[in-house]
What does this fold into?
Amino acid sequence: MSQYRNANTSRDSHITTLRAICGVLVLACAAMWWGWSQAPKDLTINIPPDLRSGSTQKWWEVPPSTVYAFSFYIWQQLNRWPVNGEADYQRNLHGLQAFFTPACRVTLNEEYEMRRSRSELRGRVRGVFEVPGRGYRPESIKILGQDTWIANLDLVINEQYAGVDVRDVYVRYPLRVVRADVDRERNPFGLQIDCFDGVPQRLNMPGVDK
It folds into this structure.
């Protein structure tokens, strides 16, 4: 009888041990699930375009080439008026507003209203593109800090009215760019243009009369 009693006691002790192990495993799984749920859903790592050699890149750093590509792309889209500047410019300002700081949006909207009141936009067709040979260069980006840059864009501005060229000039735009990772749905770049850092300058290109 004592033998059976000892066997039952041993069995109950083993079951208790297994239950304790199961409880620990459940707690461990719950802790891992919580940690997984708190992990970032997205992590942006900016890689320079030249991958011919290896590089070490801190994930929070934004390479100058990325800042330049962002500022040029957004500025070109803002200034693309395929049909009528009065409507196209306003549509671009609204559609691209997530890529500009609030202060810059106010400045650009004021400029739009001023040019519209002077009839400088109606019927205008506009496009901007890089000056040939003046794309990204190390000196194109001035680093002011981890979160602030100045992008110098050397662009050709071409405007037409009723199919006739009315403006064809070279201009350097000094755009201030800041980190603003606040809305990944509308702005996956995590950067915003903070308008100009100085007055845009007209460029004199040797051998070209513009």
Observations:
- The radius of gyration is 30 Å.
- The mean pLDDT is 85.
- The CA atoms of residues 101 and 194 lie 5 Å apart.
